[in-house]
Amino acid sequence: MTDFIVKDKLFNNSYISNYHSVIRLNGNFFSKSFYCPKSKKIIYYQKGEIIDNKPLIETNKQHLQKEIILIDTQYNTLTPTAFHFYEKQNNLLKFVYGENFNETYTDTLFFDSIQVIYAIDGKIQTHINKIDKKLLRSTFSIILDSFLSLYKTSDFKSSILTATFDNYFYLFLISNNKLLLANTLKYKNIDDILYHNLNLYDKFTLDKKETAFYFLNLSQLFENQEIKKTLNIFGIKNNKILLPPPKDAIGYKFHSIEIDDLFLHYKTYTIENNRR
Length: 276
Hints:
Strand content: 25-35%
Radius of gyration: 19 Å
Number of strands: 14
Largest sheet: 6 strands, mixed
Strand order of the largest sheet: 1-4-3-2-5-9
Number of helices: 6
Distance between the termini: 38 Å
């Protein structure tokens, strides 16, 4: 499989030391982008298949100004920062999933005092063994951070966000300024996803008119409009497909890229740059 690559006219290998980079890894594919802090634009995007004997990440990072390795994983849980003990995090994740994990990692959410504890799929683990673990972020934490930020600027009383991957999805619920739900669930088809989402309205007595529903499709199994049409049938009108980055943050060539993946890259840059 040939890698898909898009370059903005501003991209120049000679200026690589001035760029930020995000590499997103899941079980089978990777995507990579470069962001120029000066122009505040994503100027390079690449997507391809993960090949076991082909290194994806160079171990020498000194030539890049900043880099983040974004990890897709179905093994995530939350704990308040004030009550988090690193020596206990393996046991906590084992308690949640009933599995043993050789190594676990943590992210601190930017918008709240919460730690995300996560484990990494074995296939991905081989590609990150030699890199600085400080570069790692979980997709779960980036999406949740983005959701918390989105809610704080919203006029809705409650908000739901679903982010789908090829065999699992993240499900988040915020209501009355409280994070009530942050789950990772497996699914076989789109009906499973819809069932869990629609069930939230009854379980938490959510008013459909005062609840925003956001959908981030990182799966290759169905189209955005398929779930949007079904939500409308069930009377959920305030549903929104998360949009690509602002037009001034990407070149015209990037409009052909999957908007959901591009959204994730852009949000990672936004959140990480705000940490400074």
